[in-house]
Write a structure and sequence with these properties.
Largest sheet: 7 strands, mixed
Oligomer: single chain
Number of strands: 19
Shape: globular
Helix content: 25-40%
Distance between the termini: 30 Å
Strand content: 15-25%
Bound molecules: pyridoxal-5'-phosphate
Mean pLDDT: 96
Length: 457
Amino acid sequence: MRDRILGLDRQTPLLDGSTVTYINLDNGASTPPMMDSVEALEKFMPYYSSVHRGTGFKSRLSTRVFDETRNILAEFVKADLEKNTIIFGKNASEALNKLSHALPHGKECVVMTTRMEHHSNDLPWRDHYKVVHVDVLPDGRLDEEDFDRKLALHKKNLALVTVAGAANVTGYLQPIHRLARKVHEAGSMILIDAAQLAPHREINMLPDHHPEHLDFIALAGHKMYAPYGTGCIIGPKKVFMTCAPDYSGGGTVNVVTPDEVYWADLPDKEEAGSPNVPGAIAMAASAKALMKRTMKKIEEHEVRLTKYSLNRLKEVPGMTIYGESDPEKLDRVGVIPFNVKGIHHSLLAAILGYEGGIGVRSGCFCAHPYVVTLLGLTDEEAEAWRTDFLNGDKSKMPGMVRMSLGCYSNEEDVDRLVAMLKKIAAGDYSGEYEVVRETGEYIPKGYIEPFDEYFTF
Ligand SMILES: Cc1ncc(COP(=O)(O)O)c(C=O)c1O
């Protein structure tokens, strides 16, 4: 895979003025582009033109290629496009918001989600539904007994159950098909937020009549090696057919009179305005490449590397790994949150970046309630940082550092991370860092980034 990822050879600057090959261990946030998506765009862009309404050859070709992207993404998750539709938006958040508008709603309708979700699979539901959160166990795993209890309690008013296929903080994989069976037995539907799952594991929605069928899937191109601004929601046509679009406008209609509107068929009704054709092409090209190299092989590689990472991280003095730290427990993807005793998470991440050339992420990863639970904060502690934060002081925000693997990550990446963590744990770093109260970031005093040497317009 390493030959097929753009920019892995790039040198980036360090605080001491030297340069080093950059290591991206922040794939959980966004993955770099895969050459397959870059090459598909290079080939396609000279022909780029308006889709659906244009009559010239380039428009006809663009329309065909754009339509073909849906077939490829359907194949990627084994969706039946006779009964389901694929609606593009700009990312997973937009996909989830779109569904929150499309389902029948009202404050008496319940959406059941979990305490380990990314905010994007929690907040959109809060506006339109009564949201019930399934608890997590002390190790951060889903409390399936609580899931069963709440499912039985709310099944009469349940509009949807929604869970992340893989958690973005701990990497836990959910038993999505088992949960789907339970949800269907309760007479409801299940959405899998697969933003974090799709780059790591094969997804199979299964036939619509199957008891373990996944009703809805949300995907994000930028986490699937196609960072060109596209995501999508995949789900039953009948759900999207019965509602007015969340955004109306060009392309969403069949007929408009001065007083009436007759909506277009799916997916056009739900994709107002000119779509992001290059984004969809990049996402489809990347999905095709992942299928060709096979998700099974990617999984095998990642399982090996996750074990390796967990074992190596434990060599760092003062290391705390959150969630599962046993390398033999396999219900997780290669996303590992940790802290090193005595060093603020944000400072640790900053030193890794400025002095190690290693990209990670720190903080709460858009999952505040889950991180607070994993850190074991008391209600008073949690309340105290929220108050500081809301008063403009983000420096006291609790959190962790997260390393997240991509399909191209290797032992060398992990070795460099661990070597750097050991140095930092021993106090062996050179920068004098100051914290910016308003952002919570640590910045080396007096350092001016040489950005212009790397990119200017
Ligand atoms: C599990 C999960 N869901 C949803 C999102 C939101 O994705 P996007 O940035 O594509 O809107 C993320 C992003 O990190 C995520 O990890």
